[in-house]
Write a structure and sequence with these properties.
This protein is mostly beta strands. The chain has one helix and 22 strands. The protein is rod-shaped.
């Protein structure tokens, strides 16, 4: 890796980083010509890479009249960048590798320093132990964020600013309801008039609970697991009814056992969904349902008796 810089506050001195793209995530994900931070907020240097680092200095910098304190400290030697997030996801900035006790903050809002709003700020990664700073926040694609590095109590020195953003996985919303459809079951004439009904959680084990009723009588009440829960149920030839009721709305598809990572907007869609799969012996169908808690669906269980073969 090669690195060279000339430092000029206000207009932003050029910093060229020729990154080895095979190395760790603190290096640029692509070759990037960046600029050192600017002393004035209004001249904050534009950066937009999804993952990169910049080295510079705040020696000779000061603070502006209307500049807020960063991370609860008055500071006194701040430099600014304007970062435009290339994706929606979790952004991380830190000053690890800097040569002094740093302050780090990220702001959003108007382009006037008197109107910006703090997103996140940090003084020490670990108080009295690690004097560099690190922050994490939810970034929106195309939004401008104002990143500032200052010195604790006015400290100055060499700056290394590292950042990365991890794009959030967009997960399709589940509909409010996906009801059961009719089942058609064949029972050989020599077999008992009964079927085995099995239910399981087809997505992940997230606490869904259901009841199953046949011809108005409850035959199964269970929490759903990846392994099926089964029960033998007597039926009559002809039309029977099968009903499913989603007892709760605590099924939670984001994170946890599910391993699905959602953006904040997706959580509301997934948090109140009860979902699973039901199979009935003698039928070639395996049906999945999705219901809000307290809702359910009913379908016909059509039983035909005749012929030969193994019992379902």
């Amino acid at each position: 890796m090669t690195f060279s810089q000339t430092h000029t506050f206000g207009s932003g001195g050029d910093v060229s980083a020729a990154a080895d793209k095979s190395t760790d995530t603190n290096t640029c994900s692509r070759e990037l010509t960046a600029r050192d931070g600017a002393n004035d907020f209004s001249a904050g240097t534009l950066i937009s890479a999804p993952a990169c680092w910049i080295e510079g200095s705040n020696t000779g910098a000061d603070t502006e009249t209307s500049e807020p304190n960063h991370a609860g400290n008055s500071g006194g030697a701040s430099v600014w960048w304007t970062w435009v997030s290339p994706v929606t996801g979790t952004a991380e900035f830190d000053t690890v590798g800097s040569g002094f006790d740093t302050l780090l903050a990220v702001y959003s809002g108007e382009t006037d320093i008197t109107s910006i709003e703090e997103e996140v700020a940090n003084d020490d990664i670990e108080r009295d132990t690690i004097y560099q700073s690190a922050v994490e926040f939810d970034a929106e694609e195309g939004e401008r964020y104002y990143v500032v590095v200052d010195g604790h109590d006015g400290a100055t020195g060499d700056i290394r600013l590292n950042w990365r953003v991890e794009e959030a996985v967009q997960v399709q919303d589940l509909p409010d309801a996906q009801p059961l459809q009719d089942f058609n079951v064949m029972i050989p004439a020599s077999c008992p008039r009964q079927v085995e009904i099995c239910v399981r959680d087809w997505a992940c084990e997230d606490g869904d609970e259901v009841t199953i009723s046949v011809n108005g009588a409850q035959v199964l009440r269970t929490e759903l697991f990846n392994a099926p829960r089964c029960v033998d149920v007597p039926v009559r030839e002809g039309v029977n009814t099968i009903s499913l009721l989603a007892l709760n709305d605590s099924g939670y598809k984001c994170g946890g056992n599910c391993g699905i990572f959602c953006t904040p907007g997706d959580v509301d869609f997934f948090a109140l969904i009860n979902s699973g799969e039901v199979t009935i012996s003698g039928s070639q169908q395996a049906q999945r349902w999705r219901h809000r808690g307290g809702a359910g669906s009913r379908a016909n269980l059509n039983v035909t008796v005749g012929g030969s073969g193994s019992c379902p």
